[in-house]
Design goal:
Helix content: 40-55%
Radius of gyration: 47 Å
Oligomer: single chain
Order of helices and strands: EEEHHHHHHHH
Shape: elongated
Mean pLDDT: 77
Strand order of the largest sheet: 2-1-3
């Protein structure tokens, strides 16, 4: 019996080598390992990996030596490039920059600047109103009037320009947020960027549709706070639009008192516009899951805390039994007998 065997790599059966080594196990068709002594320890077995070209069997065991010189092992002299070519992406395949995506990153700064400029405009209007009050009794110096007019006009102009920039930036932010929200749900935004722009920038129409667009984003979330914030902002946004229309209509009055009241009403409108800008920033942060200062909002979890039971009223514990002495003393016998009987009756009760 042969002492040289070939173990099967799949089923573990050892086959005795009677002639040329076999390649496949007759039992399970697994790969047979290299021949080795049956009692050889694992560290002395001559198992090794053999690399052969596909479609060519090793016939060196059954054929005589042809006398050819040994050939060196094939190897690459450099990194092969047939599968590692990193071709640059064609310009047509790259993601095209979306409109307003660059401006959307400045939405926070634009809203803060809008609130500051409207606050300055409100202060300028209040300063003009104070000048009008002083002008009732005395004349105002021309330089002060010129400075007041310049401050009012400049602050109002820059506030309106920054409000327009903030509106466009917020529109870009809304487009990006809607695209990300619908992409997470495995869908595509049903409203095109053009429709969103028309609904957010066209006067009178933009009093209704921005709230609709925001509600569609936060309606499917489990947290009700973004939806409540959007509804609150929607109401304030509509009220701000009504105040703006009323302020413009008030400026058409002819009387001096109406014009003076118009200055004060314009100051109130500017304060409302600054508040709406801050409220818009708050809604943007809330939809993103952050607070007004941009910090991540931590989730609050309410748990049931069980305190040790403490009785409200201390229970009455029985005390030691009361004893009454009935021994006679130097006092009146009758009175002592009556008091003794009464004490005994109390103890008995």
């Amino acid at each position: 019996m042969s002492t040289v065997v070939q173990p099967c790599a799949r089923c573990g059966t050892r086959w005795a080598v009677q002639g040329p080594p076999m390649h496949w196990c007759p039992r399970c068709r697994g790969v047979l390992l290299s021949p080795g002594p049956i009692d050889a320890p694992p560290e002395r077995r001559n198992y090794r990996w053999v690399a052969r070209r596909p479609g060519r069997l090793d016939r060196s065991a059954g054929s005589a030596d042809t006398g050819r010189a040994p050939v060196a092992t094939p190897r690459y002299t450099e990194i092969p490039r047939w599968g590692l070519r990193d071709r640059p992406v064609a310009a047509a395949d790259r993601e095209q920059p979306r409109p307003l995506s660059a401006l959307a990153r400045w939405v926070y700064t634009a809203l803060l600047a809008t609130a500051v400029l409207f606050g300055i405009a409100a202060a300028a209007e209040l300063g003009r109103y104070l000048i009008l009050l002083r002008n009732r009794t005395r004349l105002i110096e021309p330089p002060l009037l010129w400075f007041s007019d310049a401050l009012v006009n400049t602050a109002a102009l820059f506030a309106l320009i920054m409000a327009l920039v903030a509106a466009v930036a917020t529109l870009g932010w809304l487009i990006e947020v809607r695209r990300a929200a619908f992409a997470d749900a495995g869908r595509r935004d049903p409203r095109s960027p053009r429709l969103l722009a028309l609904g957010c920038l066209v006067p009178v129409v933009n009093l209704i549709f921005p709230g609709v667009f925001l509600s569609e984003v936060v309606a499917e979330r489990g947290d009700p706070r973004p939806l409540q914030a959007v509804r609150l902002w929607w109401a304030a946004w509509g009220l701000g639009g009504l105040l703006t229309v009323a302020a413009l209509y008030w400026r058409t009055a002819d009387s001096l008192q109406a014009k003076a009241d118009g200055v004060l009403f314009t100051a109130v409108t500017d304060i409302a516009a600054a508040g709406i800008a801050v409220l818009t920033l708050w809604v943007v942060r809330t939809v993103e899951g952050r607070d007004l200062r941009g910090r991540d909002r931590l989730a609050r979890r309410w748990v049931v805390a069980v305190d040790p039971a403490t009785p409200l009223i201390e229970p009455v514990h029985p005390g030691p039994a009361a004893t009454v002495s009935t021994a006679p003393d130097a006092g009146s016998a009758d009175s002592r007998d009556g008091a003794g009987r009464a004490a005994q009756e109390v103890v008995a009760q």
